Amino acid sequence: MPATARSVAPPRVVSIADFRPLARKRLPRAVFDYLDGGAEGEKTLRENCRAFDDVTFRPRCAVAFAGCGLKTTVLGHELSFPAMLAPVGYLRLMHPEGEVAASRAAGKAGTGYILSTLSGHPLEKVRGASQGPVFYQLYLMGGRAAAEAIIERAKAVNCTGLVVTIDTPVAGMRERDFRNGVKELMGSNPLDMIPFLPDVLSRPGWLLGFLRDGRVPKLANVVVPGEGPMGMTDVAAALAASAVTWDDFRWIRELWTGPIIVKGVLTGEDARRAVDEGAAAVSVSNHGGRQLDDVRPSIRALPEVVKAVNGQAEVWMDGGVRRGSDIVKALCLGARIVLCGRAYAYALSAAGEAGVTRALNILREDVERTVRLLGCASVGALDRSYVEVPASWAA
Fold this sequence. Notes:
Layout: H1 3-7, H2 19-26, H3 29-36, H4 43-50, E1 56-57, E2 72-74, E3 77-79, E4 83-85, H5 91-94, H6 98-108, E5 113-115, H7 123-128, E6 134-138, H8 143-156, E7 162-165, H9 175-180, H10 182-185, H11 197-201, H12 204-212, E8 219-224, E9 228-230, H13 235-240, H14 248-255, E10 260-265, H15 268-276, E11 281-284, H16 298-309, E12 314-318, H17 324-332, E13 337-340, H18 342-373, E14 387-388, H19 391-394
């Protein structure tokens, strides 16, 4: 077993939570807190995880079945189990292989990967790393010309679908990033980094990989005509200048004939509008608690969205998923698939591709064990009768 795989094998890593301290140990504070943190007081960040505790199981006991079916389909593509890897920005800062390692691990595990616009590796390389479904998360950064160019590239490499994120009219106020020097780390002036050097120098393993990788990469998939790839330091301003509106979906559909997934839906109203605009799926998400604080946790918003969609599109969900039991609870409440973000990003930060592979194995084993303990023969047979939710959720 390679050293990186041994570093995340039992008993050192038994659950997803075990990856977090390993990531914290390896990454500088600025990079770890970018991954770990949320907006403002981080109330939604905390509630995303805690709200799963409000959902309890109602198992069927004294039943037997030969096997436990974990396979599901997403937009017609078969997955080995009902979870995919969510888009996470700046993965190349967390590990040099970043998005390529995540895509490769997902493909080997028989599931899908969603590439963030805020990625350091080019789409073509990431798509080529996986035989499984690979989606592209689309921000309109760099203007329509830049978006048109990446849509054409996505078509050329047969991306599975476009995931259009609608909850970023501006970047959320992530206070940890300001305190820890994220902007300075990603800037071009080494002098700006001086106040933060002691912390960076205390992580020699990460620093060596960072320097060998050429320091901060540009956004390989946001190519501004006449200027080239956008620098990562321009992200906040670029988001503010490129908010997605419902009118943009008409233009996107003219360029992209494949499935469109609308990500960032928290209300029935937005879910119905997304369906009206031709969405093949909607993803219930509050951006991992990184945009608007004090919104509902994703699992709490899921039932309302499922009801509003009424079977006219698939419903996906992300936010706060740390265990296979979280995935199962979301499936019981109507989600077709669950997206995992921090769960694999901690693992990538700790041990690269081997970490992501281990994280996926943990989640898959968790899902199978939970479904079996519920007395259910397959994930496709899960429904609301297997869980109990607070009465207030019905309101």
